[in-house]
Design a protein that fits this description.
Number of strands: 25
Structural class: alpha/beta
Largest sheet: 8 strands, mixed
Helix content: 25-40%
Radius of gyration: 28 Å
Number of helices: 15
Strand order of the largest sheet: 7-6-5-3-2-1-19-20
Distance between the termini: 68 Å
Shape: globular
């Protein structure tokens, strides 16, 4: 296999007749999926998603793809194609629309229905949306695009086949093979086989579960487990899932109906998405099953079921607030049941475990994928990936959607089905791949930095600032203030220390004050005193003492006023 490249230069101008793939996110990470295809001076964007922050990124709300490479070429974009409605594929669409709001956007009915409210929230103009379905074909500039139905953990997911004179590119999006999906729309294996027989020059394949052997069980297998857990629960039931997981919510609705419980939806995104899904016919809910929170709380606990957001342990989401007893609508007691019916996104383990421990400490019965079959993945395992490779028989393969280890494992699966190892293009974020004359090769690298959203601030947070935030969160903050006579070089006001985010009593700093004063006096020179030099002296003395005495490395901000 071609290796993962490092220290690449910016790619040279695209050769005549060649097609370039530019991944601006989603490679080397699970999230912010975005790929750009370039041919004959025109660009086609496939997906535009976000990545959610980890605990090591305090204060960050979202992480966006890096639009810098296309910001001067937005007029060349012929369309944005969305494969499905998960946040890691549509969450960054509003931020792209801020730069060019009139990009024609293609996706399935449910995908676009989930995307439109995001644009409204940012007060962006009515989008140029075009609904497509499996089997449809559209011409977008020099790109002939065909859509193929695939099964995922959200309805209406699509794979995308892009045909150009340079060759045919098949992008799976996120997929699995479920022969009995709840919506009756299985992965269109016949279409994939037909496209494969016609010839696929570059196969871009979901890698998320490429290390997992076997096949993903059907979503239907979860139904009986949820039915039993809800039926056996003596108190109220809380089920946490992704707000876009319509199939899972349908199974929960079925379980609630069978056990005689009413359902309350908690979380703005859960309420909004399920309303959309119901209106579009993707969610079937009997009249009167869903009630508001006030009505539900009037019922006995054995007749209540809450469907909530926060399956990843997000501190401000519903489940985390419920677990610590500060949710305005839902209060749980010992003996109640909580079901985490969702996958665990890498990086969220600490938050999820904290929520589980808080719930368990309160006497709540907690069920999750570690102790009950309450979740199946929406991503293909090795068995399904091998099936796809054998159906499509691609000439070149570019693994996408996954961390580095997932991409490599996916490439190895392709090789096992007969793909030439030299035709596996293993690329990291920003590494470009050019397709010409049936050969896919690494051609260079474009910027692919993480763009952080903090409130209304977009892209203003640097890695250095994140490092400072981590220090503040983990080690605390100490300020030192002193006044020095600039002419005489005498300390007029002894250093005053204030500490934030440290467990120690403030009086502990009293023992270092004499040493700080002495160091200041020694460093101060009559008529030549330098505030910056004195500040660095205080930082050094206090820093050494805190490290030795308190075993900490806080952020230290010294201030010297010269009078």
């Amino acid at each position: 296999m071609k290796p993962l490249y490092a220290n690449l230069t910016e790619p040279s101008p695209l050769q005549d007749g060649a097609l370039r793939v530019i991944p601006l996110g989603g490679l080397g990470e699970v999230g912010r999926n975005m790929n750009v295809l370039e041919y004959d001076g025109k660009l086609l964007i496939v997906d535009c998603g976000v990545l959610f922050p980890e605990e090591s990124q305090p204060g960050v709300d979202l992480i966006l793809p890096d639009f810098s490479w296309i910001k001067d070429r937005l007029d060349d974009v012929v369309a944005l194609v969305l494969t499905h409605g998960h946040e890691d594929h549509i969450g960054a669409v509003p931020y792209l629309a801020m730069q060019r709001p009139d990009i024609p956007t293609y996706g399935s009915d449910l995908t676009l229905a989930f995307t439109e409210p995001k644009l409204r929230e940012h007060r962006l103009p009515t989008p140029d949306f075009h609904v497509v379905a499996g089997g449809d074909t559209v011409k977008l500039g020099p790109f002939d695009v065909e859509f193929i139905t695939v099964t995922h953990s959200i309805p209406d997911a699509l794979a995308v086949c892009v045909r150009t004179p340079a060759g045919t590119v098949l992008i799976t999006g996120d997929f699995k093979i479920d022969h009995l999906p709840l919506d009756g729309r299985p992965t269109d294996l016949q279409a994939l086989a037909r496209i494969g027989a016609e010839g696929v020059d570059l196969f871009m394949v979901d890698s998320t579960n490429s290390e997992v052997p076997g096949f993903i069980p059907s979503e239907r297998e979860i139904g009986p487990v949820l039915d039993r857990l809800v039926k056996d629960a003596s108190g109220q039931v809380v089920v946490a899932s992704f707000a876009s997981h319509v199939h899972r919510v349908q199974l929960v609705m079925n379980a609630a109906l069978a056990s005689g419980r009413k359902v309350g939806l908690v979380g703005r995104s859960m309420e909004r998405n399920m309303k959309i899904a119901q209106e579009k016919g993707y969610l079937t809910v009997p009249e009167g099953l869903i009630v508001d929170a006030a009505h539900l709380n009037e019922l006995p606990p054995s007749e209540r079921l809450w469907m909530v957001t926060g399956s990843q342990g997000e501190p401000m989401a519903a489940l985390a607030r419920i677990s610590v007893g500060n949710h305005r609508s839902v209060t749980i007691d010992a003996g109640d049941t909580v079901i985490l019916a969702a996958s665990l996104i890498p990086g969220n383990e600490t938050d999820v475990n904290r929520v589980i421990n808080d719930l368990t400490r309160s006497g709540v019965n907690v069920f999750h994928r570690g102790n009950a079959k309450v979740h199946v993945s929406g991503h293909a395992c090795q068995g399904e990936l091998l099936t796809f490779y054998n159906l499509v028989r691609p000439t070149n393969v570019m693994p996408i959607h996954g961390e580095i280890r997932h991409l490599i494992a996916n490439g190895q699966l392709a090789v096992s089905t007969g793909v030439d190892p030299a035709r596996i293009a293993l690329a990291d974020g920003g590494v470009t791949v050019d397709l010409k004359d049936g050969d896919a090769r690494i051609s260079g690298q474009v910027p692919c930095e993480r763009v952080y959203v903090d409130g209304k601030s977009i892209g203003d947070i640097s890695e250095d600032e994140l490092a400072q935030r981590r220090t503040l969160a983990a080690e605390g903050f100490v300020s030192i203030f002193a006044v020095v006579d600039k002419d005489m070089g005498q300390v007029l006001s002894a250093p005053v220390i204030r500490a934030i985010g440290m467990a120690e009593e403030s009086s502990v700093f009293d023992e270092i004050l004499p040493e700080l004063t002495t160091a200041l006096e020694d460093a101060a020179a009559p008529g030549g005193v330098d505030a910056y030099t004195l500040q660095q002296v205080m930082r050094r003395v206090l820093g050494r003492w805190v490290s030795r005495r308190l075993r900490r490395r806080p952020m230290i901000v010294p201030v010297v006023v010269l009078q």
